[in-house]
Amino acid sequence: MTTSLDSFKSAKTLEVGGKSYTYYSLVEAEKNGLAGVSALPFSMKVLLENLLRFEDGRSVTAEDVKSVAEWLVNRGKAEREIAYRPARVLMQDFTGVPAVVDLAAMRDAMKALGGDPEKINPLIPVDLVIDHSFVVDFYGNATALQRNVEREYEQNQERYRFLRWGQNAFENFRVVPPGTGICHQVNLEYLAQTVWTKTEDGVTYAYPDTLVGTDSHTTMINGLGVLGWGVGGIEAEAAMLGQPISMLIPEVIGFKLIGKAAPGITATDVVLTVTQMLRKKGVVGKFVEFFGPGLATMSLADRATIANMAPEYGATCGFFPVDDETLAYLTTSARATDRIALVEAYSKAQGMFRTDATPDPVFTDTLELDLSTVEPSLAGPKRPQDRVVLKNVKAGFAASLEGEFKKPGEIDKRVPVAGRDFTVGHGDVVIAAITSCTNTSNPSVMIGAGLVARKANALGLKAKPWVKTSLAPGSQVVADYFNNSGLQTDLDALGFNVVGFGCATCIGNSGPLDEPISEAINAADLVAAAVLSGNRNFEGRVNPDVKANYLASPPLVVAYAIAGSMQIDLANDPIATTADGTPVYLKDIWPTKEEIDAVIAQYITRDVFASKYASVFEGDARWQGIEITKGLTYSWQSTSTYVQNPPYFAGMSATPAPVTDIRSARVLGLFLDSITTDHISPAGSIKAASPAGEYLRDHQVRPQDFNQYGTRRGNHEVMMRGTFANIRIKNQMLGGKEGGNTIHYPSGKELPIYTAAMQYKSEGVPLVVFAGKEYGTGSSRDWAAKGTNLLGVRAVIAQSFERIHRSNLVGMGILPLQFKDGDGWQALGLKGDEAVTILGLEAGLKPRQILTAEITRADGSKTSVDLICRIDTLDELDYFKNGGILQYVLRSLVAA
């Protein structure tokens, strides 16, 4: 940690428990030139402290520090770039493997350029949690967990061997082995400290625990008073290597919570309401901070549930300040007592501790929710912000069936299932999954689900036979309190056996449906449904056989498994009948708050957390038994279909080549609004007939061993073939037909996007992509940008971009261009057969410069349109000129 210039004389000493800590005091800075900063939002105070601590006169100047104080005047409306340095980095394995692959490749490149490979090493702590690799292949019985684990290790040996190498080869790099839990919950329960410390040159510094993560739901930790958000793997790698994260000082939207939720209302109901409100408000690229008296009624887990969904409501973060509830959670979750004392003392000394008497901070804007008005809710059938009140779900599905899914007059359609004594129809729930970090961090809803199962069992109710049921707890702590309370037995009886510990259905790892059910659905083109306690329900994400996906609380997931259909009004109609024909209503099996609280009080204790995290990095015998090679650089295996040396640094010189204009580019795709990174990035299962499937077959991989795209993120050959290959993506060059195809020009042939891109590459033709609003919404997936780069796309031209994806495009050397208000490819009448030339890149390109695209139509006529260059900062411009952020970092380290 470089000693700060400390222009505002803020350095002070804090004595806690007999230990001395140096910290940069906001109170002192306010006295010495930063007037009024005590009124800043708590999240902005974290940014201010960061700048005070890293003021070096170069990357952080006194003017940068002053600009945060000036925020009180401009409320974030003035565009000011700052350099932000998080304390640590968090990764999950889907996004972490390619990051470690890139670090390994950078060591090779460093060696080739005559530099020291050991310079390629994380400079800040990095934790990678393996939580995305298991698939729900087996479910509904006592052997499901064991068989899924065996299958996971069988399919992921190469990846796990590589990560074990990385764990030994890199400093400041820890790996949490498979089967521990979801990275965000492990972060919440163990890794996060709220206040971080570091000893350097005999001085121990205390400062806010901050992080960036390679998963957009890193924001869940905001519930613990820790500022963190998702970035692309590319940005995370740069942060690991000592590069600051360039960001514009954000607007901060204050979300005031008042009142208290009514009995029976879950944290999921609240978060879906919050998500809908903030999406309507428009908070993309902004901080959201929660305040108001309603916080006093909200558990830490409830706060984490709301913070987790920040990507769904579009914000950079959803921040909750430190208060007494934070300290209580740190105590229950077995954090060290001296650390808890430091958190309290530091937060109070900095004016970062919230009490009921704390004045409301100054915000850019505010909105308010009375918690007492929240109703039981789901979200669906396609987006997390599309909240539907429980009593309206039946009617809402019927409307979607005719509207979104174009099935008029088919509401009662049912078809037989071969070899089974039941039929399936539109709206049947074929997946009911308690899954994902959003809710499995929250004991109130998890125990609620167990109590619903207990009450249902007492009445003799069962899940419908066409429902694939699964329970993927967020951590082993959940399994402990389920087992000790006996609730796991009740869940097992309804088919909610534990299938694994990690993120599953929410990311498409739902596994296949039973074959006869899958065949019936596809033969009759049924709109089958999934109900999951996750945070994502985008098209094509959960399961290829399921078109309608609904987010719901864990207790409602259990209830819908029993009901078996979205065409039942759970709020008013019976969800089932007992053996003697007595109707059972949802209220008959819904637990009271008192019942839930009693289980929490008895079974969720400090000792449980302490025991479960005592050996968190050791792993089981399978993990410890993986053989690894040692060495500074990795021994790449040419036969591996999981891990390959990527081509980003091939032929790289010590100095970058000049940026060139884009001339006569062809259009790879025309897309409408809300194209997500799930549409762009390879995800889910790999189809045998796809370019990726053909590649694997050519490498002697059997279709049953294809695994999924997420597990093969370390192999660029697989991933580039799966880019834009989502089964639900609609390229308007083909009239909106689903599937990852395009039309090659001038031949006019319809081809898979990968195949067309490779043909264009062989012809020396650059490519562009056109899109509508909110392009790249979704998870922080670096492969949505990496794959786009490898396909030969030079520029993406959209009406607006999601924050992380825009940054990732720049980080991969791709130019993001934004239409001015009112413009768009549809308004221009584009068909996709045009040639596009963009000039001005060679002549002193500047951030947010206006560039002109000249579009030549098939008949030779030309149209010009002005575009905003969405390279937003000078640092991003440096990355772009170098061909990407990794190339920039590598050249900087070679020159150092």
Describe the secondary-structure layout.
Layout: E1 11-16, E2 19-24, H1 26-31, H2 42-53, H3 62-69, H4 71-74, E3 81-84, E4 88-92, H5 93-112, E5 126-129, H6 144-169, E6 173-176, H7 183-191, E7 195-200, E8 203-208, E9 210-213, E10 227-230, H8 233-240, E11 245-248, E12 252-258, H9 267-281, E13 287-291, H10 300-308, H11 310-313, E14 317-319, H12 324-332, H13 337-349, E15 365-370, E16 377-379, E17 387-389, H14 393-402, E18 414-416, E19 423-425, E20 429-434, H15 437-440, H16 443-458, E21 468-471, H17 476-485, H18 487-493, H19 515-523, E22 529-532, E23 548-551, H20 554-563, E24 576-577, E25 583-584, H21 586-589, H22 593-603, H23 606-612, H24 621-624, E26 662-670, H25 677-680, H26 691-698, H27 716-722, E27 741-744, E28 749-752, H28 753-762, E29 767-770, H29 782-790, E30 793-798, H30 803-811, E31 815-819, E32 835-839, E33 850-856, E34 862-869, H31 874-881, H32 885-895
Parallel strand pairs: 4-5, 4-9, 5-6, 9-10, 12-13, 12-15, 13-14, 20-21, 20-22, 22-23, 26-29, 29-30, 30-31
Antiparallel strand pairs: 1-2, 3-11, 7-8, 16-17, 18-19, 24-25, 26-32, 27-28, 31-34, 32-33, 33-34
Helix pairs in contact: 2-3, 5-8, 5-32, 9-10, 16-18, 16-20, 16-22, 17-22, 26-27, 27-29, 29-30, 31-32
GO biological process, one term: tricarboxylic acid cycle
Enzyme class: lyase
Subunit structure: Monomer.
